[in-house]
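Pasting as-is:
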Amino acid sequence: MKKVLLVFLALVMILSMAACGEKPEVIENFDDLDTTKFHGALSGDGNFLVMYEGSIDEAVMGAVLATPDGTSITLSEDTIVKNPDGNSLLWFEQVVVSTGDTVALTLEKEGYEKLEFDVIVEP
């Protein structure tokens, strides 16, 4: 019985380590973006970040991220960074938010349909 339990625990540990080593999905086309994978966050400096669960640098380069009040940024190498997991972070420091706020966003890129979605600013 102890051997079966040890084998089971070893398998669980191996599967956990394999899951941690997965690389994020790379999205190369704007049309392939999934709005449910966007999340709001605050940087250590209190700046607003929009995180995408995956790497979207190529897909959103040159796109415009905006709020309903008209605040917007054009996404570029200066405003897109990676977090330690390899996910894309869209740096949107012009917007002042607090943890728990819901922020309505639009993401537009010429030649593609506009995306509209909300993110909740997570701690």
